[in-house]
Design brief:
It comes from Escherichia coli O8. This is DUF2971 domain-containing protein. The protein has 218 residues and is α+β, with helices and mostly antiparallel strands. It has a domain at 10-34 and 97-143 and 182-217. Helix content is 25%, strand content 26%. It has helices at 19-26, 61-68, 84-96, 109-115, 160-171, 212-217, and strands at residues 10-15, 29-32, 47-49, 55-56, 80-81, 98-103, 122-127, 140-142, 144-146, 151-153, 173-175, 183-188, 193-196, 201-206. The strands form six sheets. The protein has a three-stranded antiparallel sheet with strand order 1-7-14. Strands 6-12-8 form a three-stranded antiparallel sheet, with no helix packed on it. A two-stranded antiparallel ribbon has the order 2-13. The two termini are 35 Å apart. The model is unreliable at 52-59 and 75-80 (pLDDT under 50).
Length: 218
Amino acid sequence: MLVIKPEITSLFKYCPIGKNQLSALAQRKIWYSKPAGFNDPFDTQFYVRGQRHVYEREMDSEKLSAIFGEDMSDVMVSKKRSLDELLDRFKSGLEKLGILSLASSNKNLLMWSHYASEHKGMCLEFKRIAGTALADDKITRPMNYNDNYPSIQASSILNEVDTLSNKIRILHTKSKHWEYEQEWRHVVEQGNELHPWPAELISVYFGCKTDMSDIHLV
């Protein structure tokens, strides 16, 4: 498998040091947020191109279920149908995902300030090598910073390959205002819960203002 940006051999997670973080560390787990919990209210927004109302396309419930999950198996299918319900379910699927936001460097002063309790927190280093989740470009990618929302063709959600491509573009596109973060994202099926580390934790770095008592706790 060809690894995107193989020169990036580690990815980093800036975070505060608190009860929740310490508990997660002890379990060898980390928190994955749903998109609604992000500090950018426009994150994962997208623009729909083309007519939404009617498409002459027949799809059986088995194929719909394979693309969107078992909850689609009871959807009525016909040659002429509105895409509104499918688009709503597509959006709902995005909203349920869990996202771990990572950085490509542990030396970003703004990241230490914004995400690690103003230099009082920590930064976790995860090893990124071929064969690990962090090297799988279907679930871990760098962000694309753009002035515009990603756009999708309405009818493309009827195609399994296009649906996956749409999800990847939407989840990994962000305003250029956030470019300083140099963010990567690892995506899992369910958000707002703890998941096992996506790769080996090889180092923990502490901020220049981190209390010695917190360092000892970690």
